[in-house]
Write a structure and sequence with these properties.
Layout: H1 9-15, H2 54-69, H3 73-85, H4 90-99, H5 102-109, H6 115-123, E1 127-129, E2 132-133, E3 146-149, H7 153-163, E4 175-178, E5 183-186, H8 201-208
Antiparallel strand pairs: 1-2, 1-3, 3-5, 4-5
Helix pairs in contact: 2-8, 3-4, 4-8, 5-6
Length: 210
């Protein structure tokens, strides 16, 4: 199955939560979730749907996380197997792995308005990690890594318009940003509390661990 190219607001409506798929627009009154007549699940007969089954509840939690981070089924299951092999709680380890994706870090540093835009910025070669150019959105960062903008004029001009010269956006505690040099640092490993959408990890573990 290829990538989704339909209206992304349908995905937020289906999951019943803002997935921040359009960046700043999702924080304005133009967001579909802010309109009572469009905040219901998509479909002509959404109001007639029956109560979700146990399977349906767990599926929705899984789909919500996949769509929030922009990963496909095969990628998601690979991350889940990695989380299973880790020593900590499987659900928390899964979210920590997804948070460490480079496209997520770039978005949270303010180098891109959304994760989709962050993936384009990375693939086009505007960013580097520890001084080396990285073009894989799924690259896993670790504590101590530095994410910076390439010295090329085109890259500097593009990212400067997003971050600005007078200080960067309010970033989470596990990250830090130097807006003057356009360089972000991963201070510590992320935790469950750093995820910006409500997630019931136990449901995901119960569904994927069968």
């Amino acid at each position: 199955m290829g990538r989704y190219i339909g209206p992304v607001c349908r995905r937020c409506r289906r999951e019943g939560v803002k997935l921040m798929l359009k960046g700043v627009r999702c924080e304005t009154a133009k967001c579909a979730m802010e309109r009572s007549w469009r905040s219901s699940p998509p479909g002509m007969h959404s109001w007639r749907r029956r109560k979700a089954s146990t399977y349906g509840i767990r599926l929705r939690e899984k789909q919500k996380v996949k769509r929030y981070y922009g990963v496909r089924e095969q990628q998601f299951m690979r991350y889940f197997r990695m989380a299973e092999r880790a020593r900590g709680n499987t659900g928390d380890e899964l979210l920590a792995i997804l948070e460490r994706r480079l496209d997520n870090v770039v978005c949270k540093l303010g180098f891109a308005p959304s994760r989709c835009s962050a993936r384009m910025t990375i693939v086009h070669g505007h960013l580097q990690v520890n001084g080396r150019r990285v073009t894989r959105p799924g690259f896993m960062v670790k504590p101590g890594d530095k994410v910076s903008v390439r010295s090329a004029e085109r890259s500097q001009k593009l990212l400067r318009t997003l971050v600005g010269d007078g200080g960067g956006p309010a970033v989470q505690a596990w990250l830090s940003l130097d807006a003057s040099t356009l360089e972000g640092t991963v201070n510590v490993a992320p935790s469950h509390d750093d995820v910006q959408i409500p997630v019931e990890t136990q449901y995901i573990v119960e569904m994927c661990g069968r």
